[in-house]
Amino acid sequence: MRKANAKDRILTTAGQLFNERGYSEVGINEIIKTAETAKASFYQHFASKEALCEAWLDAIHDRSEKGRENILASSGDPCEKIANYFKTLEDYLVESNFRGCPFSNTATVTGESCCGIRKRVEDHKVSIREFFQTLVAQFVASKERAHEIGDRLFIIYSGAGSETQNVREMWPIQTARRAAVEICQAERKTKE
Hints:
mainly alpha, Tetracycline Repressor, domain 2
């Protein structure tokens, strides 16, 4: 079987290592060795470890964004879509052995000097926030109220992901999903 090209091997290897141990705990030499590539190949494709991390975060964001776009474009009840989005996070947390959000994990170990990484983290979080606002707008007439409820759901979602990672148990995300459904149902009732 043919090996993937050097750039893809580096990106895949870095992603696995960053996800397993964190951005700050992985060095360029380890990535090069594990990816079975030359140092010159690394620098041909990535100017630095930071640039590699930016590419990794971009790839994750693009996949996530596509998923959110598909959810928004699909038919179905917006409250069920919200509940399912929380369930997707639950599944991810189990699958990743409670590693949590790669963006949040990376943000905690990078300083203000890592402007490109920080920008990607902020853009990703804004995208999720806007996703919730857009979904809520499908059943709440007021744009201001949709933003307010969407923001609440975003905070619940983010906090649940962090706490599930911290305690390594599923109850925070499961509780958050139930809370999100209750918020959506209550908001619908006030409209009736």
